[in-house]
Task: inverse folding
């Protein structure tokens, strides 16, 4: 499959056309941003790690019956995915309090919930991805009622699969963000990435942070944390 013109450059990835109109090529970068792009930096090796970790997770989820956009890993940093139109929602599942949840509701990080929570943000950088509920999503016509139901169902299923998977790796899955897309036939599939950029991972024993919070909060050893997660997930 040939890489053609650059269609879109995001904060962490570039998206190219291919010679198949239904397939796109995603190339992962080492660039890192936080706080809606206000903090900028580089995490050496991140692009390759996030590409390989995402593809591993997408394939694991496919095996468990979750539809995804994954097609084929081409190289260390490049992957073919099905072309989708992205649903402009960031879907966040939380198992343990952290980040904006702890801040918004004035609670400590590390409270283990009896059941997972789900929340939606309107994916809009100009507005700073504001938190919305499903009625707002309907009012804004970001998705249909049926699509929101499917998205919720898939998101909780992803949580069940990932929680169990990471428990085996001695990692607590604190929270994560998912994005969904529509195929040309309207089917909703999991899209974007699943990586230390988009999940919070805490070592089950030491509670050490093994994710992008090390970059967001200037905790140091950012590259080591990404490499440690790749090692635990892929065994290398
Ligand atoms: P939050 O606590 O800052 O709302 O983040 C919740 C989860 O979503 C966390 O695992 C990090 C991830 N996330 C993204 O992937 N992209 C984003 O832009 C934000 C704000 C969070």
Result:
């Amino acid at each position: 499959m040939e890489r053609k013109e650059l269609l879109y450059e995001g904060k962490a990835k570039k998206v190219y056309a291919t010679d198949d109109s239904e397939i796109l090529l995603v190339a992962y970068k080492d660039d890192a941003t936080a706080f809606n792009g206000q903090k900028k930096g580089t995490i050496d090796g991140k692009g390759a790690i996030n590409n390989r970790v995402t593809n591993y997770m997408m394939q694991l989820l496919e095996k468990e019956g979750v539809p995804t956009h994954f097609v084929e890993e081409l190289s260390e940093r490049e992957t073919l995915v099905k072309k989708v139109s992205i649903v402009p929602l960031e879907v966040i599942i939380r198992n343990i309090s952290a980040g904006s949840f702890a801040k918004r509701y004035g609670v400590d990080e590390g409270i283990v919930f009896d059941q997972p929570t789900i929340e939606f943000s309107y994916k809009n950088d100009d507005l700073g991805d504001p938190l919305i509920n499903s009625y707002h999503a309907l009012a804004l016509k970001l998705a249909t009622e049926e699509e929101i139901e499917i998205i919720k169902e898939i998101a909780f299923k992803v949580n069940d699969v990932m929680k169990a998977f990471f428990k085996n790796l001695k990692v607590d899955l604190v929270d994560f963000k998912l994005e969904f897309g529509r195929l040309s036939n309207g089917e909703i599939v999991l899209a974007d990435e699943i990586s230390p950029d988009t999940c919070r991972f805490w070592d089950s024993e030491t509670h050490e942070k093994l994710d992008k919070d090390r970059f967001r909060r200037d905790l140091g050893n950012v590259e080591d944390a990404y490499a440690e997660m790749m090692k635990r997930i892929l065994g290398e």
